[in-house]
Amino acid sequence: MELQIWEGDWGLPSIDHDCLAVLAYSKFLNLNIDVKKVTSYWKLSSETLPILSHNGGNITAVKEIFDFLKTLNASYSQNLKSKENADSFAFASLIEEKLSPALMYLWWVDDKTYVELTRPWYAGKLLIPFSWYLPIKKRIRATEQLESASNRISISGVELEAQLMKDAKECLNLLSTKLGEKQFFFGDKPSVVDALAFGYLAPLLNAPLPTVVLQNHLKACRNLVMFCRRIQDVYFPLSPEEVEKNRQLAEEARQKLSEDSEFQHKRRNMVVAVALVAGAMLGYALLTGLVQLEFINVERRSSNNSSASVAPALNNKEDEDVE
């Protein structure tokens, strides 16, 4: 059995929410699946990932993959009550209807995120020519899907963005309230809802997004942050190589920060040194007479000017009297 997924980054086994959700659910079920990370897009039998291959057949719909994986571990049972089953379905639908469109907009339609993060990431992971046209193709498709949804509710693009972010924040609040202090959303075992939530929330939490409004809202929901960290640590622990890579990245970041700080200090010292040298040179020039300063008594000069102007006036008056 083989599962094809998008490659991972930022401490995650995959950055794609569907791929990450399926991976998480397979881990919950303790299944042994051969995972293949895609770089040659032309070899795919479907335009979307993940793809689960088993006995010569492929399954691409996430819900169908969940249902199939569940049959492979019949002993795994949450024993949910009927109301909990209904709540599980409701929260899964909530994530798909409220959170998914907002994240689609954030990753593929938001100009800043697409230019600075999404397009460079996919272009860097795929081979030419797929690195050129695939990001554009996915952006166009996402835009068309969201525009189609906006036409149904008759709102503009700006209003659509505001509505998507509002819905996503409300969804995060509801998920946070449902989770509470529990480890998982239902019972003491992770469920499909936990897999879906982790698939959507972990990339939003971990990615270096340039547009951070929704990410900051997620970070404010502390129990959701701990939920993602817990699943990541338990089910997707970093390998020694990944730990060393993260250590090196952190060290490089620390050195860069130190170098930047040192550069600022050097620049400040250079400015101070130049000012001191200039002051010393000016002082030497004044003491040796190379430069002379002439001070003018403004009040005296003003007084002289006033006297000079009054004298002609008096003379004119005397002349008039004589006549």
Structural class per helix/strand content?
Answer: mainly alpha
Main sheet strand line-up: 2-1-3-4
Beta-strand segment tally: 4
Largest sheet: 4 strands, mixed
Fraction in helix: 55-70%
Mean pLDDT over the residues: 81
User: Can you count the helices?
Assistant: 11
Cα shape: elongated
- Give helix and strand order, one letter per element, not per position: EHEEEHHHHHHHHHH
C-alpha termini separation: 129 Å
Strand fraction equals: under 5%
Low-confidence stretches: 306-323
Task: Explain what this protein looks like in three dimensions.
- There is one protein chain.
- By secondary structure, the chain is mainly alpha-helical.
- 69% of the residues lie in helices and 5% in strands.
- The protein contains eleven helices and four strands.
- It has a four-stranded mixed β-sheet with strand order 2-1-3-4.
- Helix 3 (82-109) packs antiparallel against helix 6 and helix 7 (192-206) crosses helix 9 (222-235).
- It is elongated.
- The model is unreliable at 306-323 (pLDDT under 50).
Short summary:
The protein is mainly alpha-helical and 323 residues long. Helices cover 69% and strands 5% of the residues.
Entry keywords:
323 residues, mainly alpha, four-stranded mixed sheet, 11 helices, 4 strands, elongated, disordered C terminus
